[in-house]
Queue: 3 jobs
Job 1
Amino acid sequence: MDTAQLIEWLSNAIYPVMGITGLYGAFCTILLVRRIGQKRFVNEAAGQEFLDSVRDCLDNQKFEQAAELCDSPPYWAKAVPQLILIALANRNRPVSKLRNLMAEHFERDVLAEFDYRLSWINTVIKTAPMLGLLGTVLGMIAAFAKIGAMQNKGTDPGALAGDISFALFTTALGLIVAVPLMLGISYMQVRIGRLQDQVQQFVTVFLEDFEAAAAKAGKR
């Protein structure tokens, strides 16, 4: 295989590699969007309904029942019920310790997974334009090689323009892959921020209810 054939083979290989890269970026994006949706309540009313049920259990000192509620199918994938489950398992600790424990678990078990997925999407965003640029460079090398080979035979401007246009197409393709993923990351960061706000709000309400229930039990 001579140099010209190798360059042509590499140029053609850019397209399937670009396709695989774009598909993996889309897969990570869809997976992350679904995971964020699983971790948060659909709306404020759904979260309040859950907290009301937990509050009833706390008022009656039914901690095991509250734990079963948190670990039931509607809630076992959501962040707040799982954090409450951790707090109930450590309910003998002070409220300040419970708050810190819940925050640590949220960062380690939820946010760390999101950061992992975002890092892969960022990698795809950086890689796709570079692959496109590589395809363009290889295509331009092949085009200029044709110019050198055709000097004695006469150069067809139309054929060279087609080769250069085809070479530039890979750069455009890399941007087509990267730009939607960049918009997707911005959208997901907004959703992650909303999830954090929701978790902070609902965890604060739970700890207030838990402290009130503990105080009520102590007066009996």
Job 2
Amino acid sequence: MQTRRPRLAPQLKPLDRPLALSDRVYHTLRQLLREGRMGAGDRLREVSLAAQLGVSRTPIREALARLASEGLVAVEGRGYVSRGVSSDDVENIYELRFLLEPTAIRQAAATARDPKSHAPLAAAVRECASADRAGDADAFMAGNARFRSVWLAMVRNRQLVRAIERYASHVQHLRRMTLSDPSVRAVALAGMTRISAALAAGDGEGAARAMRDQLTAARQALREAGGAARKRVRRAAPKRTRRTAART
């Protein structure tokens, strides 16, 4: 005798499942790292982080291991430290960006030419322009990130998008290093405007060229920012040496 399966009411929908605790801890710590709230070399202590987040050490340990696999933190001894972004990191990340992002945005042009699809891109550009006029670097970065997420959502090759998002946390951190500079924001805004116009016209090749130019300008800004930071360190080093000598 066959057992009849119960019929579900047609209005039932799959239930939303909340993120596991380790996932929530991971996303929280990754966001802090992306925003630059943890400096390079800062030790990430499991006990302290667990106390601050109100969780046990196990989800902290799992989250830190995931962040280490992404290169956002480094293993040091028996613990973890926040990784800075070295000049080699910048070059490696931008080598990937030049390979992937022009191809991706060329695909996005097929969707972005539709006025309804393009509207969020234009809104993000206006948001950045308004933030730039107000001198609000945080608002500019938020608009810039929104522009990026909108056009990535238009890319049909989702494997390509996942490859690009693999280094998204690093890119966010790099933006924070440079977009506080008004001159860098002006270049970024001009690039976004040019990319947006090419996408609105359905010009994939034009969008790809604009993206390559934008990446070139962004990499140069980071090289200059890194060079300035190294000079500050060298200038400060003799002062520390003299202070140490005076105490001995």
Job 3
Amino acid sequence: MAKKTVKTKTKDRLQTEAELLNAAEKIFSKFGFKGATTRLIAKEANFNPALINRYFNGKYGLLIALIENKSKRAHNPDYPDQETLQEEIKSYAEFFFDNMTEDINLFKIVIGQFMVDAKFLKRFRNLINTVCENTQIEYRLERFIKSGQLRDKTHIEEIVNSVENMAFGTVISEIIVRDRPRLEARNEFSKFLHDYVQIFKP
């Protein structure tokens, strides 16, 4: 009986955390990081504000947890395996881009925190280094070494980093600065990758 109780409590906590994170994303996107309060977030999720401090150590921890969840999802694609290296990189790039831009207001908030909060940026760097280890996209790309479409394993990290850096750059320069429509920027990004992939072929 004790095991069932512990299991139920764990499940309840995970569910509560998920609901708080969903509420936090809505409130951050609407009011910004400074304007959002734990009281507003808790009210949106219909929970006691004390749970935010207990589970996330405040709204700062909530934002970090949100980024962690989004980063894990972005680095572990759920689309079908592609037959060619070019198709795989294009699919991953579009998948990563879509995850990053599904809530552009939240993206802006995170970028803004990077600019004004060195402590936040340091925590983000540590988080990304951890999240990016042994991800699904790396295993997917390793298939193309065996099939002869990719030269060697050293290029996998370079490919992933390049795709992600280009995606970040496209979002900031095209969507945020130039105010281009999301789909238009995404299509332009995909076209560029078509030629970029060629440099990694044997």
